[in-house]
Amino acid sequence: MIRPGLVSIVGAGPGDPELITVKALKALRGAEVILYDRLVNEELLLYADARALRIYCGKSPGQHAMTQEMIQRRLIDYSLEGKRVVRLKGGDPFVFGRGGEEALALAARGIPYEVIPGITSAIGAAAASGIPLTHRGIAASFACVTGSRCPGGTDGPGGGGPPIRWDLLAHAVDTLVIYMGVGQLREIRAELLKHGKAGTTPTALIESGTTGRQRTFVSTLAEVHKLAAAVQLSNPALIVVGEAAAIREQLRQLQHQAAVRIG
Ligand code: SAH
C-alpha cells in the first residue's frame, strides 16, 4: 500500500514574494503537487521543482474556478497517491483562508498534514503603509473582521455564519482591519456610524498591500466611501478604521521635514 503523502497548508504571505517564510519555501521546493490560490504571487512558483504539478484553484469574488469541496477532494486524492502536496494560499491559511476546513477534511481522512503560517495581509499591508495596528497611548487592540457578511456580501472565505457585531466592534476594538470589505464599504461605514463610531475616525484603504502596485489612502470614516469611489479602489484591499491610521500621515510629514532639513 502507498503511504499517503504529507499535505502542507502553506501561507504565501501578503503579496511581496519575499515575505514568505523559510519553512514555506522549503515545503514549496519539496512539493510534487501545488494547489495555489488567486492571491498567491505567482513568482513564488518559480521556487518549486520544474516537474511539480501546478494547479490553479483561483476564486474571485462570486465566481469559483474550483469549489472548496473539489479542492479538498484533490488534496486527499494526491496525498493518497503518495504525493507531497502543498496547498498555497495568500496571507495566512487560517485567516479568512478556509485552511481550517481543509485541515478538518484531511484530519477526517487520517491524511498527514501540517500548517505553515504566513504573514496575513492586515499585518503586511499595515506595515508597508506606515500604520501601526497597535500604538502606545492610541491603540491597544486590533481585530481582523470580514466585511463580506454585511448585507450584499458574498459567500467568500469570510461568508456564512451569524452577522458581524458592528455594534460591539465599534466600541470594543481600537483598530479594525476589514478584509473583503470593498464591495460593502457603504454598509460597513453606515453600521459603524450608526453604532457610535465617530465620523472623524481616521480610515485607511490599502490596495494590493506590499506589492509594487500598492496604493494607500487615508480619509475619515464619514468620507471614506467617497474616496474609494474617487480612486476607483479595487481588490484585493483592506479597510483600516482607527486612530492608528493617522500615524501614516505623521510619519510622512516627519520624513518630509527631515528631508527638507537634510536636503
Ligand atoms: N488568507 C488571506 C486573506 C484571504 S481573504 C490573508 O491572510 O491575508 C481575501 C481578502 O484579503 C481580500 O479581499 C483583501 O481584503 C485581503 N487581502 C489579501 N491580500 C491583500 C493585499 N495584498 N492587500 C490588501 N488586502 C489584501
Automatic annotation (TrEMBL):
Q: Which SUPFAM superfamilies match?
A: Tetrapyrrole methylase
Instruction: Report the residue ranges that make up the Tetrapyrrole methylase domain in this protein.
Output: 7-224
Q: Does the keyword Membrane apply?
A: no
Q: What is its EC number?
A: 2.1.1.107
Keyword list, A-Z: Methyltransferase, Porphyrin biosynthesis, S-adenosyl-L-methionine, Transferase
Transferase among the record's keywords?
yes
Pfam families the UniProt entry points to: TP_methylase
Q: InterPro entries attached here?
A: 4pyrrol_Mease (IPR000878), 4pyrrol_Methylase_sf (IPR035996), 4pyrrole_Mease_sub1 (IPR014777), 4pyrrole_Mease_sub2 (IPR014776), CobA/CysG_C (IPR006366), Siro_Cobalamin_biosynth (IPR050161), Uropor_MeTrfase_CS (IPR003043)
Q: Which family does it belong to?
A: Belongs to the precorrin methyltransferase family.
State the NCBIfam families in the record: cobA_cysG_Cterm, PRK06136.1
- Indicate what this protein is called per its UniProt record: uroporphyrinogen-III C-methyltransferase
Q: Which organism is it from?
A: Paenibacillus vini
